[in-house]
Amino acid sequence: MLHLQLSVTLWPVPTTRPRHVITETDDIARALDDAAQRWPEDQADRKKLLLHLVKEGHEIARAEREKWLAERREAIDRTSGALPGVYEDGYLEKLREDWPE
Fold this sequence. Notes:
This protein is an all-alpha fold. It has three helices and no strands. It has a domain of 35 residues.
């Protein structure tokens, strides 16, 4: 069934920031239903539940990125100096002589 609603909003918008529209697909509906279990105080407000999910997803993504960076730094520290004497003095300068400017 197609729902069509035409309306015009003439009230000033309190922000100049971009707005985003998300269609409540089956996957989004399940995520919001699960969010309602986690944040029961906001179970009647799908918009607030969506904001909770965005905030929590961001925190998880940031934490995973920080973990990845820490693991990378540790690997660099662990292998730093592992090949002493392999490259002669001035190796990089000689290598770069052939590079176009």
